[in-house]
Amino acid sequence: MKLNKTKVRYILRQNRKGVATEEIALDVKVSQRRVQQIIKSTMRPGKNLSWAKKVGRPRQNLHREGGGSHQSKPTLVPLWSANAGDCDPEAI
Q1: Does residue 68 form part of some domain?
Q2: This model's pTM is above 0.70
């Protein structure tokens, strides 16, 4: 099970309340040893939780102005317009 910031905070909060690591591990669906490692790593001064990042697909910038890595899509031209009588079907 992937641990994100929310789950790590939950583990630390439950530990401060005095809940056993075995119970915390069952709630979060990780091993008891992993819960102990997380608790131990946060007790060291100057240690941040850089490994507990947001999970999921990364967000993409939808603005085209910034020179994004997306190629511009071609503009679709309708074959039949509202003025269908003006169009010669054999010319298409």
Answers
A1: no
A2: no
